[in-house]
Amino acid sequence: MGLNLDEQKAVDRFRKNVVEPSMSKLVILDFWAEWCGPCKALAPVLEKVATEYAEKGVILAKVDVDEEKFIASQFQVQSIPTVYALFQGQPVADLTNARSESQLKQVLDQLLAQLPIEAGAGDASAAGPSQEDLEQFLALGEHALTEGDPQRAAGIFGQVVEMAPENAAAHAGLIRALVQSGNAEEAKAVLQAVEANPALAGDSAIEAAKSALELAASQVDDSELAALRDAARAAPDDMEKQLAFAEAAFAAGARDEAADTLLAMIEADREWNEGAARAKLLQIFEAIGLEDEWVVATRRRLSKILFG
Fold this sequence. Notes:
The chain has a four-stranded mixed β-sheet with strand order 2-1-3-4, with helices on both faces. Helix 6 runs parallel beside helix 8 (168-180). By secondary structure, the chain is an alpha+beta fold. It contains 15 helices and four strands. It has helices spanning 5-22, 37-52, 69-74, 101-114, 124-127, 131-146, 150-163, 168-180, 184-195, 204-216, 222-234, 239-251, 255-269, 276-288, 293-307, and strands spanning 26-32, 58-64, 82-87, 90-94.
């Protein structure tokens, strides 16, 4: 085909993530970029509709035009967002102008009525979404959390919970998203319902979400946080004040300050209060997720202190 190595890798990724699923599903293909404001405005609409239509055989695939320039050029993408519907590897509709939920659903309904889309084995409503579809939407929810949009993430995780009530990762994601969006009481209610379900209680993902909720209990208002910060700075050797500030800082979303404070405590006296600073930092890691880039980087900092 005359492609260089990078171009061939891009084609292989596109074939696996988009073309192969489109052989039996209707793929909404969204070309976007991190810097594109209209892309971010459209994303929640695409994600919501794709989640609702998952049982009908619709999935969402996103292509970052900065990372996949070759693929974008093959589709002759001139501006973003650009959105297509693909079936069996071929564009069957341009969805770019369908910016509202109702417009997008109208076009999808027309396509689904015309194309032999595979909604699942046997009765689609009984079979529900595939594991692949669920994992895709869970990834979208995690991406929204990473982008700092917990309300959007809560919407995605909430819809996955409706589709798959026994999916622990969806419940855990919903709890974490609610915590990050400031809805701690609603998060508590979800956790209570989950812990009453033997199929979900004790799952590692649920335990991580529980940690996030426990950490949120330390949340204070801006003036209280400023007072705790001042107190910690005025008494750098007072471990109690350092820990109090770190807990409040993380609950307020200032996780860099929280980590810096806890790491300094560990470096100064790792055995203080039976290793309370390290335990708190590990709880933060669990609450955020061990695969999170910030967590990975902070764990490296911790390892350097512990093992030199």
